[in-house]
Design brief:
alpha/beta, 117 residues, three-stranded antiparallel β-sheet, five-stranded mixed β-sheet, 23% helix, 31% strand
């Protein structure tokens, strides 16, 4: 098996996560967070669609991390995001962090809005 080191150039990846927090670009962020290649910001969870919609011009795919287990994104949130042109992918938060990092390393325009485990 060949392993390749991932480089993020000037982008901001997830470095880790734990109960109630994420580590993004070396900084601890408590609670739900929205991360793009340029940094992290607080996210108010499923009721906070505006934070995500503000990204619509700079992001093509949005990963929503639903916590420790994969769950459905509320229909009203999914509909509102898809109406704005987002491709929305829901998965558990650890998978969302990993997938975000891989696509970010490829230079893709991605964001992840994640709920802590």
């Amino acid at each position: 098996m060949q392993l390749n080191e991932i480089t993020f150039r000037e982008a901001t990846p997830f470095d880790g996560y734990g109960p109630g927090f994420f580590r993004v670009g070396g900084q601890i962020v408590e609670g739900p967070v929205c991360v793009t290649g340029s940094g992290a910001r607080s996210w108010g969870g499923y009721e906070d669609a505006d934070t995500l919609i503000d990204l619509c011009d700079s992001v093509d795919v949005l990963f929503i991390g639903t916590g420790a287990e994969t769950a459905h994104v509320p229909d009203d949130l999914r509909t509102r995001l898809e109406d704005e042109g987002f491709g929305v992918e829901a998965m558990n938060s650890p998978a969302a962090c990993r997938t975000f990092n891989v696509l970010l390393s490829e230079g893709r325009r991605v964001a992840a809005a994640v709920i802590p485990v």
